[in-house]
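Technical annex B. To support the medicinal chemistry partners, we prepared a structural model of the target in complex with zinc ion, based solely on the information shown next.
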Amino acid sequence: MWTLQAQGKQRTVRTVSTLKAVPTLSHMAIVALMKAGTCKFLISQNTDGLHRKSGVPPDKIAELHGNAFLEICEKCGRQYMRDFPVRSGAGGVNDHFTGRYCPVCGGRLMDSIINFGEPLPQNVIRKAFEEASKADMCLVLGSSLTVSPASSIPEQVAKQGGKLVICNLQITPLDNLCTVRVFSKSDDFMSAVMKHLNMEIPEWRLHRRLIVGNKITNEKYTIYLKGVDIDGTPVSFIKTAEVSLFGRPYRLPEEPLQLSFKLPTVEDKELKAHIKLEFMGHYEEPPFEFDHTFSLDAPGEQLYHLEYNPYMREWRIVDEQSEINAMTISELKQKLSAMHVDYSGAIEKQDLKNLLQKSTEQKRSAATSP
Ligand SMILES: [Zn+2]
C-alpha cells in the first residue's frame, strides 16, 4: 500500500486482505535488502513457503523445518515449488511421497515438511551454520528462539563477535546477548528500518517463466508452451492455452501444451501466432494474451518472463529480449541439475548470469557469422 501511495496511484480492484497467503511487508523488505546485498542469507523456521514466493532465490535460504509448498525429487533432487500444499501423507505421518512423479526423471516427489520427531535435514542445517559463521550481524524477526537448533544460530553470531538484533513480542533466552532489542511486530519494525535506510519496500509480484518453442519432426510441425522455474525446472501454472494460427484458434486443453500439424506449403519463413493463456487461478489471474512469431526455418525456443500484479490483476512481459535457444536451455538445465542434487547446494547467481551471457554471445556470433 505504501508503494502505491508514494506513486500517487490508486488501487482499482481490491486490497491485499482479499488475497490469501501472499508475502507481507517484512518478506518484501528482506527481498529488497537481499537485492541490495545488505542481507546475505535467510534462515527460516516457517513452513508457509512465503519467503521463496517473495523472490528469495533458493540458494539464499535455509528452510529449517521444510516448505509446505515444495516437493523434491528423491532421484534427481529437482525442487518443485507449487501453489498448493504438496503433502499427501496417504501412507501415514512419516510418508513423504506426494503421489506425484518428477516430469524430468520419473523419480518420486517427496514433500519437504519435517514432522515432529523427524531429524532436520543435515545439509540445510549445515548451510545455515556455515552462513552464520560468516555473519557480522544477525537479525531475528518474530522467533521466540526456544526451538533448537534454530536458536543456536543467532547465539553463534553473537558469540563470534557479530551484532545480534532481535525483534519480536516476547522475551527470548538470547536477550542478554543483543546489541539491539525491539519489542514490536516484524512489519512495524521493518517498515521503520527501511524508512531509515531510505529504501523502498517493493510490492509483491508473481513471476512466471514461459517457454514458447517449435520443432520439426517427421515432416510434422509442432509448437509447444511450457512453464519453467528460474532454473529450468518444469512448473505447471497454465491451465489451458489457445493458439491462433492462420486466422483460426486452436485450443490446448491440458499439459503437455502442444499442437502438431502438417507444415503448410507456404513460402513464409515465419508463422505469426496469437497466444492466450489461462492460469490455474491461485492468484485470481485473468487470462494473458500476446503475439508470438515462430521461425519456420530455424526452430527453437523463446523464454518469456511474465510478471503479475495481484493487486491490479495485470500481467506484463518483463523482458521480451531474453531469447535463449534450445541448446542453451538444455545446457542450463544440465548445469543446474548437477547442482540440484544436494538440497543445500548453492546455485550461484553468477553461474546463471554467466550462462545467460554466454547464450547471448553465442546468439550474437551465430547472427554475425555467415
Ligand atoms: Zn527427478
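Notes passed to the chemistry partners:
Residues 1-18, 320-330, 335-353, 366-370 have pLDDT under 50 and may be disordered.
The chain is about 25% helix and 30% strand.
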